[in-house]
Amino acid sequence: MITLVLFLLAEAQPALIFPIGWIGWTWFLLSCGALVWTGGRWFRFQRAWRRGEWAFFGMLAMASVFTSIFIGLRLSLFRTGVVYDLLLPADGFVLMVFAALPWIIAAGFLGPIASLTIAAFSGLILANYNTNSAFTVVEYAWLGLLVGAAFQQPYRTPYFRALRHPLISCLLLAVAFPILFIINMAVGYGQGGGAYLDYALANVPDASLALGGSVMLAALFAEVAAFGFPSAWGSRSRLIPSPAERSLETRTFNYLVPVVGITAIVLAVLAWRSAVNTAEELMKDRLQAMADLAAASLPAALEAGQLELIEIGRDNRLASQDAQQMAPLLAEFLQGSDYFQQFLIVDRELNVLAASGLPGEEAAALVPQEQVGAELALQGVPFQYYAVDPGPDQRAASLSFVVALPYGTEPAARVLLARTRMEANPFFNQAFAAMAQIDAVEGEGLLLDQGGRILAHSLPGLVFTSYSGELPDQPGTFRETGPRGARDLVHYFPLPGQPWSIVLRVPTQAIQSQALSTVAPFLGLLLFLLLVLIVLLRWVLRLVTRSLRNLAVEASRIAHDQQELARPLAVGGVDEVGRMRAAFEHMRASLQQHLEEQNEYLLRAEVEHQRLAAILASTPDPVLVTDQRNHLLLANPAAWGVLGVSGSQSIAGQPIRRVLRQPELIELLESAGDEYKSQEFTAVDGRVYVAKATSVVADGQRMGSVCVLRDVTSYKEIDAMKSEFVSTVSHDLRNPLTLLHGYTTMIRMLGELGEQQETYVRKIITGINSMSRLVNNLLDLGRIEAGVDLDVALIPVADVVADVVDNLQLQAAQNDQRILVEYVEDAMPLVEADQDLLHRALYNLVENGLKYSSKGGQVEIVVHASRQSETILFEIRDCGEGISEADQLRLFERFYRGKQKEIRKRRGTGLGLAIVKSIAERHAGTVWVESEAGKGSTFFFKIPVKQENSA
Ligand code: ADP
Predict the structure, then answer these.
(1) Taking Cα atoms as reference points, which of 489, 512, 491, 513 lies closest to residue 502?
(2) Which of 46, 435, 584, 781 could tie 111 with a disulfide, CB 3.0–4.6 Å?
(3) What pTM did the predictor assign?
(4) Residue spans of alpha helices (H) in 189-247
């Protein structure tokens, strides 16, 4: 049943029951102490408050007053209006709908100490006006602390992440609460008897629902708040490893403690259940024994009265004597009877004729049952008995026995009534004593008549009231909620052959206190063992992890300070940890050895490096070394001047494109391959260098390149001087040679020369011609190399080739040789070139072809024009002697002539190919030869179709 509570204070009287007995108080103080201790330990989860947060705390504390007294639901869902003679709530627990909201919100925004305080405050109100248990305050404070710590802890494992969710941690709280509730009730009020435990067990569902309901509702709000204000909710620090993550000991402990705890709880519950069952069985047996005992003596007691009365009734004097005579007679009978306390004789009109044993003032009157009995007796019923109201404050009814007088004769003249108080009657003693045993267990024993009226009760004042409990058809034991609301165990036993029945009622709390008293030593022992086990567990774990921790400390010592590597680890023991230590020590020793070796290598390498650096530093030629990313690794002092820097610091490690200013040098370094490449360039200081580079290869991988520069400025100058000298000399020789040639020719005009003279003149002319050719060639070469401007124009290639062929046709014909021309491309392009020079180059090549071919041979000119590469290639092929490989390498040098004899026979200056090469270079082209000795040679002359620097 649920009823609405609008204002709690109006519905209940404030009351607070404190623990009972020293055990209860010890438990209470222990709970408070543990709370304070844990609060102190978890103070680290408490955040520092700013001014605004103090105000917020105050607001929440105020709010908790309102939420704890307004709007609630009273729950009596799981119990049947149990009323105990305790101060505990009789009309059900109240679910204060918003009661948990302030402290759960405080837990998230302000921290565990705030939530503890507000929860304890709220608990104090609820304890006073609803639960009435002082433990409620402690329970709420605990819940506040737990939930605050759960929200604020910054641990990173999934378990702790989940705990930060209000719904999850609040659900755990709601589940844990019943255990806390029962333990607090059982231990805190245990010495107050089983009633509290019975109360706890009967109320735990309602109490849990009341707490769980408000907590889960608050959790819902909290979840929304956490989502809405993630920065203000929970821990502000970043996530850290959880204690279990950091310590093996804690982790194992955390795994084991719940297992041990759950086992202990299961054991306790099982023990409790079996103790309750046993106690209940015992109680049933006991009730049965009491009932049997009572039932056995009751019929005999009744029968004794009947026999005695019939005996008296047989006395004829009672039927015949008059009233005055009968009084002493009755007194005599009374004297002799242990059974009866009063005798009355009535006549047929039911007038009392005589009485004995009545208190003085009391009028001798018949109660209604007696009147009925007397009339029945007069009508012929020989014997009856009736239960009669004994008056106030009696424990048992009185009995009136009725017989007709004289007994056994009809019609009856008079009626004898004998009264006895069952309580005072020794014949009933045994039955009442049996029923009185129930007092020992605070139960009640009742004797009922056929109408359910109470004839005897262990409590005074209830006799002759009607019994409100259930009366089944069969004898037996059953449970019933008693007239006071508490649950009772009821034993019902109808007397055989009598209309009466015996009812014995025992409150279940008697069973529970019985069970508690049997199981308490066991539970105490269990608790003690649990504590011992936990302490032992902690101790053993610490023992095991201590050696591991030491090892970890030593490992980190070594890791942080290399000096420590030299200090050996203490080894000992053959268990796992001992073996690990030994292995670790082994590792340390080999690591140390390895390090020492490394250091030695390093030292050697350093010495080598310094030596190399010294060598490089004293090398007069500049040396540059780059790595595979083309960053400058090294430049020796000789190179600094070339690069224009004052030291290597500013350039070491820089990309060469940033450091070097000579594109030729950069290109050379970047493209350096397995073979030496060389390149001439002019340095910053104006000096001319030849750079030679090759790549550095280690283990088949290119590691970078190394480049050596050589200063060739002086050679260049000498070369220039030589060229100038040659050109001056040849220039100066030209005029005298012309004169010589003129005068020698004129000698013939002076008259007929003799044969001898003619031979001399011809030899002189031949000598002069070859000298002139040499001089001309030298002058041409000088001009071309000196860089006289080219006379570039668009020239039809075919015309130039035709000219060359025309010029040499005569010479070819003399030697019976042929010149063939072939154009590979149909449409012959126009080429940008200096016409004279191109003519000269082709002329020289074709002339050489004719000169170094035997008679009757042929020279082929093949012209390839390539639109794609925009070049034109002249191929001059002969079928002469060919050129040896050694000659091929040097052919294009000045004054170089082939070493073969046949060649030496031909006249030549060794300048023709040098001129061709110069012309090719001037046109940004190339010339090369392919030849095989004896099979002829092919010269290639290639120039671009367009000249770059021509407009
Ligand atoms: P020269 O022809 O005046 O000796 P060149 O510079 O024209 O000077 O030629 C240099 C050398 O090249 C020649 O001495 C010759 O050995 C070789 N040579 C040039 N052209 C040919 C060729 N077509 N066949 C064989 N050898 C050649």
Answers:
(1) 491
(2) 46
(3) 0.54
(4) 194-228, 243-246
